[in-house]
Amino acid sequence: MAAGDSGHEAESASEPVVRLDRQATWLFRSFLPDESDDANSLGFEFELSFDLGSYDVKNIAYVELNDFPRPIPGQPIGNPEPAGFEAATGIGDILTGFWFSRKGGHHGAHHLAWGFGAQLPTAADDSLGSGKWSVGPSFDYEYEKGRLFAGVIAMQLWSVAGDSDRADVSMLIVKPFVYYSLTEKWDLMYVPYGISVYWDKPSGEKAYVPLGGGAQRHFKFGSVEMNLGAALYKNVVRPTKGPNWDLRFLLEFQF
């Protein structure tokens, strides 16, 4: 999940209650250790906003279409027990979050909204998802000043229902994002797949921590803003059979 602008001007009653703020398509290749084949994913991310009484609500939903030559620990996020499963191609689990902030509460450079996250067991194959319904608390923090727009989305998820034959889910997901404007058309960016910690896994197999970055260029098609970007990340902390590198491409529409 990459965060977009969360502020909205006051709108007339004739405008729609639900607004599609942005849609991003992520194509990325994960380079696996000691494997002749690597993994490919096509991710779709949607950001919506709407009014709920005296609150502004932001929702981000993310789902992937994956082609995995073997099970990959933690990809898609929340697959707690890939051992013994086969290579698979298909849709993964849906990951989503909702964050609430009071109308007019976005003052100055800082913005903090609290909410919850959820993961839905929509995967087409056991190797591509957790098999569990998972929920937990979340927050969205954003900072914007001058050329810098940065922040973090974090959520802790626990499984509450699902396949009794699958391992329970207890995971922390941290999605940092940093954009620095070089020119009117070019940004540097750090928007990785995310830092994730699987609390129930053995020591040395619990976490992913990616470092790296990339750049994006702004375009305009009619009234729609578009971004095209690329980035490379090294997983400096990872499970034994987790990807060494992730190469990511982004096509984003802002409405």
Task: Please characterize this protein's 3D structure.
This protein has 255 residues and is mainly beta. The protein has a single domain, classed as Porin (Beta Barrel), CATH 2.40.160. The protein contains no helices and 14 strands. The protein has strands at 18-31, 39-52, 55-68, 88-91, 94-102, 110-120, 132-145, 148-162, 170-181, 186-190, 195-198, 207-221, 224-237, 245-254. Strands 1, 2, 3, 4, 5, 6, 7, 8, 9, 10, 11, 12, 13 and 14 form a 14-stranded antiparallel β-sheet that branches. 33% of the residues are buried. The model is unreliable at 1-14 (pLDDT under 50).
Give a quick rundown of the structure:
With 255 residues, the chain is an all-beta fold. The protein has no helices and 14 strands.
Judging by the overall fold, what is the CATH architecture? Beta Barrel
Secondary-structure element series: EEEEEEEEEEEEEE
Query: How big a fraction of the residues is strand?
Result: over 45%
The rounded distance between the terminal residues' Cα atoms is 17 Å
Key features?
255 residues; mainly beta; Porin; 14-stranded antiparallel sheet; 0% helix; globular; disordered N terminus
